[in-house]
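sanity check this fold:
=====
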Amino acid sequence: MMNPSHNFRFIERDYWYQKALCDTDHLLPEQIDALLDDAHSYYADYTFKFYNDGSVTIIDNDTNNRIKPKELTGAVYDFYIRKRIYMIKANLIEKQLQHAN
């Protein structure tokens, strides 16, 4: 039986851009872009595949290498934890609905 996955892409630069855009009234979008360009030389770009059995595959889109969850830090780790919790809750709700009928 196939184990379907739920795929999510996390682009760290986009995350920080949206955060800055929402958290400030004083910076214009092009100023945020300039700050982000100056702040880091590398931003993570990962694809997360969450499977119904609870497993996860994380792929670095720049290198095509697999990343282990214990290697995640900062905003990427926060994204992973939030999506993991979301997937667990969704799975529990789905099972509750199946058994309610």
